[in-house]
Design a protein that fits this description.
Number of helices: 11
Radius of gyration: 22 Å
Largest sheet: 4 strands, antiparallel
Shape: globular
Number of strands: 7
Order of helices and strands: HHHHHEEEEEEEHHHHHH
Strand content: 5-15%
Structural class: alpha+beta
Helix content: 40-55%
Length: 416
């Protein structure tokens, strides 16, 4: 593993830090108002107006499309600069990407698999955030077993007609386009009959229904496709080749987040430790003086440091184009189970106060994080599926006695 990013990357880091110091309005979080109405498609924990404004500022300053070729509006930099960008954006407390699925998933996928016409049509609006995207992979009966998906697309002249349902579609209520998987040849084996389609969301054949979560927010949705249409040229990578294209899309998430996850959990743990110092236990002493709590906090710190080291190892493999093998599955098991445990620890430190909510079931950030962490061992490929992958592919153990399994791990896969 190489712990040095190199002179060019560090120079980029300093340039971006200076820009953030001059341009980031840290009060943007104070403007956020969580709306919890499940019938309100605008519900969500972001100040959309400022996020869009900040995204445009990034574009104008040349901090969008960092690894994209210059002929398509990108900056022509390397993946390490993209990692540095993600690290500094997170450290600074900047808003999340407005068009995550466009910037980091479908954009790079089009660069890898798209036709020249597709690149010219879709890449510029993605960079400028003029068209927002969402991902349509998971279905009610096709999550971890994604290749069993039932959404179908049939050709009708110059168009594909799509029928089916997608679920756990993050930001589907704000998206202009969806990239989805559909079965275009039902007579082919599971993986062979799937195509990767780009479909406009604003049409009568697409219905979006927000899904309200335990946290009170509903940033993801279920999508009903009933005769939705898209042009025949909006197939990426060729008809029947959707599975390979989808695996490319899922792989693009790894490099940008390889080192930021440990940063996130380190910051969160610092807040938990501060709370332990300020909350009194039954003996009247701060919880941080309780030997059991101290041991638990030390354990949490150790696990975050392991996560950091594993992040560097993963990043090194990605930059050297090595086969990651079962590393993504190991990482997913480790961080998701850690996060469930540490958020439970945070609530136990709070004691009875952790159960108190505000008016109209208004939750604190810590309470939202605790509830959302329950889902993290499920979405992105369940912990059970990830253990099967490690056992079968990494350790050579016998396969689970079940036919036609096709486990994958992606942002919208197996999200429940």
């Amino acid at each position: 593993m190489d712990l040095e990013y190199g002179e060019a990357a560090e120079s980029f880091r300093q340039r971006f830090r200076v820009w953030l110091a001059d341009n980031l309005d840290h009060s943007w979080r104070d403007k956020v108002e969580l709306t919890t109405d499940p019938d309100d498609p605008a519900s969500g924990p972001v100040d959309a107006e400022y996020v869009r404004e900040f995204d445009q500022m990034l574009f104008e300053a040349g901090f969008k499309g960092l690894t994209w070729p210059k002929e398509y509006g990108g900056q022509g930099l390397t993946r390490i600069e993209q990692v540095v960008f993600s690290e500094e954006q997170f450290r600074s407390g900047a808003p999340p990407a407005l068009n995550f699925f466009g910037d980091f998933l479908i954009g790079p996928t089009l660069l890898a698999w798209g036709s020249e016409d597709q690149k010219k049509r879709f890449l510029p609006p993605i960079l400028k955030s003029e068209e927002l995207w969402c991902q349509g992979f998971s279905e009610p009966n096709a999550g971890s077993d994604l290749a069993s998906l039932q959404t179908r697309a049939e050709r009708d002249g110059d168009e594909w007609v799509i029928t089916g349902q997608k679920v756990w579609t993050t930001l589907g209520h704000t998206a202009d386009w969806i990239f989805l998987l559909a079965r275009t040849d039902p007579d082919q084996p599971q993986h062979k009959g799937i195509s990767y389609l780009l479909v406009p969301m604003k049409q009568s054949g697409v219905q979006v229904r927000p899904i309200r979560q335990l946290t009170g927010t509903n940033e993801f949705n279920e999508i009903f496709l009933d005769g939705a249409r898209t042009q025949v040229e909006n197939v990426v990578g060729g008809v029947g080749n959707g599975w390979k294209v989808a695996m490319t899309t899922l792989a693009f998430e790894r490099s940008a987040t390889a080192t930021t996850q440990a940063l996130r959990y380190h910051q969160e743990l610092d807040r938990i430790i501060d709370e332990a110092r300020n909350v009194a236990g039954a003996d009247g002493q701060p919880k941080s003086q309780d030997p059991v709590v101290r041991q638990q906090l030390a354990q949490a710190y150790s696990q975050v440091m392991i996560m950091k080291a594993q992040g560097f190892r993963t990043l090194t493999s990605i930059l050297e184009d090595r086969d990651l093998g079962v590393t993504p599955s190991l990482n997913k098991i480790f961080w998701s189970e850690y996060h469930r445990w540490v958020t439970e620890l945070a609530m136990s430190i709070r004691g009875p106060q952790g159960c108190v909510v505000g008016d109209d079931y208004k939750l604190s950030v810590e309470q939202q994080t605790y509830l959302f962490a329950k889902s993290e061992t499920i979405w992105g490929g369940t912990a059970e599926i990830q253990r099967n992958i490690v056992g079968e592919r990494g350790l050579g153990l016998p396969k689970e006695p079940r036919a036609d399994r096709s486990p994958v791990g992606g942002r919208e896969s197996a999200r429940a």
